[in-house]
Amino acid sequence: MRPTDSQLCGANSPVWVPMSRRLTDSLVIRPAQLHGGVFRTYADHRMAHAGVILGAAVPGVQIEDIATTAKTFPGFETVWSGLFR
């Protein structure tokens, strides 16, 4: 059986459980105060793309493995960094 996307991104991990609730077809996340730090991608290009969007609004966010975006957007690092020069 193939794991679900929520399992792949760690939605069942102890980090997420206190601030999330799983529904039959979705995940409800209660927001917390946003701050800089390392955004873990778990080698998932979707998580990396989500992290850079968050980093555009929150100072100090660092993406753990931005190179994983090459799976769906080769050259993404160069394009994205060029937008903020």
Topology at a glance:
Blueprint: H1 5-8, E1 20-22, E2 27-29, E3 37-39, H2 45-57, E4 61-63, H3 76-83
Parallel strand pairs: 3-4
Antiparallel strand pairs: 1-2
Descriptive keywords:
85 residues, alpha+beta, two-stranded antiparallel sheet, two-stranded parallel sheet
How are the strands of the largest sheet arranged? Answer: 1-2
Helical content band: 25-40%
Tell me the fraction of residues in β-strands, as a range.
5-15%
Radius of gyration: 14 Å
Provide a count of the helices: 3
* Spatial separation of the terminal alpha carbons: 45 Å
For the secondary structure, the number of strands is 4
Rounded average pLDDT:
81
Q: What string, H for helix and E for strand, traces the elements in order?
A: HEEEHEH
Regions with pLDDT < 50 over 5+ consecutive residues? none
Secondary structure category: alpha+beta
What's the shape?
Answer: flat
Which sheet architecture does the biggest sheet show?
2 strands, antiparallel
Polypeptide structure, described:
This protein is an alpha+beta fold and 85 residues long. The chain contains three helices and four strands; from the N terminus they run αβββαβα. It has helices spanning 5-8, 45-57, 76-83; strands at residues 20-22, 27-29, 37-39, 61-63. Strands 1-2 form a two-stranded antiparallel sheet. The mean pLDDT is 81.
Can I get a quick summary?
With 85 residues, the chain is an alpha+beta fold.
